[in-house]
Write a structure and sequence with these properties.
Rossmann fold; 17 strands; D-amino Acid Aminotransferase, Chain A, domain 1; 12 helices; homodimer; 9-stranded antiparallel beta sheet
């Protein structure tokens, strides 16, 4: 019997699982939020992932459930598990990707290096944290943030009053040390339910306006020690949190040469898009293999350097098509991946991957191809 | 508007167009022969490709028509063209892939090197050809043969009596010189309607029982002259026959160091499966770009060596699944591509691609992974 993998969420991550699913012969089925989503081709159901009946009906026809995003509520996930559905990553792991306060507390238990942090319930507590941590803090809503949303740098407790005023009783915001970092890195690992883990090369990620703009694999000029530390952190978190499937650990490389955990994602992640062409086993194939409990593939890079540059939405659909053709014409080495999304300014509508022997060349070509869409 | 590409035929070649179509954002639609074909996921219609009304209805909703195979009748193709449908490759080109006698005559006009050949209408004419060509001939039915079917080596005119007896008046068989060759090669090129052509590296193909078993890219130990000759032949045929999309030219490398054209295919071809991982632009993506008249991609190899080994069908579906898991477990470097076909002895149900720096290693791994399915 062909393994049937159900993906909750019809965005670009689900879309990019289609290609490896077809080639491996896995039966991919998507529960999409709407008609016409990025993963439309594999959509076998449309509905609300927060509704247990909808999700339960979808799960009835698959062998394993996985995700395009981390927003499926815990009660829905736990009801599936109680039904006997294979869910990867499972609710116990996903809670750490869903709630940044829970994640910080668990990483502290594991002894994983991370920024100073505290749960703060009001402006006074936040001010106290700021006073103890050099006069500034990063405040985050523990749940629901992504791509820079739900994150704010503050220098006074009062600057988060609007967020505090909407908190329910007993809830808190996450305050984090404003880390002085030289650059951001990301470590990806994949873990099977059976426990096998493989690690990808450590990569450098460049953020602009809180959104991932560019990824270089491997991270240039990294010390051997940092490569080892990052991989160990990735493996430790995957095991310690019981992650199944792909795990992305976003990291700070600090001015004083430490590696600190910034964020976690338990799914294929923007920091791993380079692996589609850049690694023997791309992260979307690896995620499918991991959640289906199939043997994991080699993470060996196919080239000395791989660079990914995101395509952020331009003005109109028509123009995007023309630019697409222009990008292909000017850059025959570029692999252009599109998400089938209507462009809006700043919206991720695709990315470009380039691989090669010379980093400067690879960076130049990837940026130039992505720039055709500006 | 997203380009809509309609593929006639739902086999593995159409299936393998799905992955690049999704990534490029092309809208792939397949007219499949039946439910549950290899390209089922992209099938938007099921019907007989020989029936004009069926094909016309399918073509009404796409921007360009292309093919999984070369069997669509000329009258159907020409009716589409008369309707104003973009058909790539067009009927004028496809006739040369549909009829080996027409192909031989046209290649002779172009001056392309090929085996001695003749149209023979009866056993006496075949005997005369045999007598003139060293006492043997390869007899082929001009139409409908593939994977060794419709091909027979004979040493007497009488050995093809059964085929002659079924010929219509005025029809003939193709008699070809039995070429003494050291090995078989294949040259692929892609050509856009606008005339742009790109060539792939020359590859070596190994046939067993008339079926492609293994491909090595690039062909090991090839002289520079043969590489140039093969590429020139590929370009000359693509231009001379007006091919649009992928063209595969199967070649003999003879004992006396000549390159002769054996067969043509005007679509992605088994000899190019290696390019899925082995080249910057795989042949399925390239075919889509070419038939949609989009700029062609780089054909640069991603590794010094790529090897493709076909998986020929084993006994049962259940066993194939177990072997699949075993192949992934034992060979993390192998890229296993499956066609979603029920296995039958000798039936192509998938292939394995491996790339790397050392030819012996790459050949060993690809064969070992494919052998897991025996």
């Amino acid at each position: 019997m062909t393994v049937r993998i159900g993906v909750i969420g019809g965005g670009q991550l689900a879309r990019m699982m289609i290609a490896p699913a077809v080639e491996l012969g896995l039966d991919l089925r998507v529960l999409a939020e709407d008609e016409g989503m990025a993963a439309q081709l594999a959509a076998t159901a449309v509905g609300d992932y927060r509704d247990l009946d909808t999700v339960r009906a979808f799960a009835a026809d698959v062998d394993v459930i996985t995700f395009d995003h981390e927003h499926v509520p815990q009660d829905v996930l736990r009801a599936l598990v109680a039904d006997g559905v294979q869910v990867h990553p499972g609710p116990d792991a996903l809670q750490y990707a869903q709630d940044k306060l829970v994640m910080r507390a668990r990483l502290a238990e594991l002894g994983v290096p991370q920024p100073e942090w505290a749960a703060v319930c009001d402006a006074a507590e936040l001010q106290a944290f700021i006073d103890e941590n050099g006069g500034a803090a990063v405040v985050k809503t523990p749940r629901g943030g992504y791509d820079g949303k739900g994150v704010r740098v503050v220098r006074a407790g009062s600057e988060a009053e609007d967020w505090f005023s909407t908190l329910s009783d007993g809830d808190a915001l996450l305050a984090e040390e404003l880390v002085s970092f030289t650059r951001e890195l990301a470590q990806q690992v994949a873990r099977r339910p059976s426990g096998d883990i493989v690690a990808y090369p450590l990569v450098e990620t460049v953020q602009r306006d809180g959104v991932c703009a560019e990824v270089i694999a491997p991270a240039p000029g990294t010390t051997d020690r940092h490569v080892l530390v990052a991989e160990r952190i990735g493996r430790q978190i995957a095991e310690g949190l019981g992650v199944t499937g792909m795990l992305a650990v976003e990291l700070f490389e600090t001015d004083d040469e430490r590696i600190l955990v910034n964020e976690l994602a338990m799914r294929p992640h923007n920091s791993g898009h380079w692996s589609q062409e850049g690694a023997v086993t791309g992260q979307f194939e690896q995620h499918l293999r991991a959640v289906a409990d199939l043997p994991l593939g080699s993470t060996r890079p196919r080239a000395p350097w791989s660079v990914m540059v995101n395509i952020l939405g331009g003005p109109t659909e028509g123009a995007l098509e023309d630019r697409f053709t222009q990008a292909l014409a000017e850059h025959p080495e570029a692999k252009v991946h599109t998400y089938g999304k209507a462009p809006r300014p700043g919206r991720k509508v695709g990315h470009v991957n380039v691989t090669g022997d010379d980093l400067d060349d690879v960076v130049y070509t990837a940026r130039a191809a992505a720039d055709e869409f500006l």
